[in-house]
Amino acid sequence: MFKVSIVFLNIVIYHIFYQFDFCIFVEIIFHKMKKFQIFYFVLILFTFVYFSCNNTKKSNKLDGIETEKLWKQNCALCHGSDGKLGLNGAKDLRLSELSLVPRIEIIKKGKGKMIGFENSLSEDEIKALAKYTFTFK
After folding, report:
1. Which of 21, 44, 78, 81 is deepest in the core (most CB within 10 A)?
2. 117 & 65 share domain
């Protein structure tokens, strides 16, 4: 969506500066629109730019890894999508006071009924998942 907005703005800028005389364009805007219409025009323009540049879906990429996808594939079954499900003795991650390093070790080696993921996930993926668990607080 961002690329579409940039292309659109480039086209508009091209037409303003190269197809029309800029002074004529400004004169048309100020003479044809009243003050409140100019305000709404600017408001709509900024709203369009804001929403076209803003991702509506929050990206959960940590260090270039899609952690939400990893979480759903490996962890959500027991911990849930929000970290509080607690199946098979899984801890409520919203209440955890562990720092990053112990979380990485638990994901690598496992704990209790939880299996370790050091053989199935890369070091970067494990670190990204450990960072992702802090989002549940």
Report:
1. 78
2. yes
CATH number, domain with residue 84: 1.10.760.10
CA R_g for the chain:
25
**pLDDT, tens only, 44-74:** 777 777 777 655 455 566 666 788 889 999 9
Give the type of residue at 77: L
Counting the structural domains of the chain, the total is 2
Long-range contacts of 74-80 (CB under 8 A, 24+ apart): 74/117, 74/120, 74/121, 74/129, 75/129, 78/114
Q: For residues 45 and 101, state if they share a domain.
A: no
Q: How confident is the model at residue 43 (pLDDT cuts 50, 70, 90)?
A: confident
Domain that holds residue 42: 2-53
- Among 68, 70, 81, 137, smallest CA distance to 107 is for 70
Identify the pLDDT of residue 47.
75
Q: How far is CA 80 from CA 36, 45, 98, 126, in A?
A: 50, 41, 19, 17
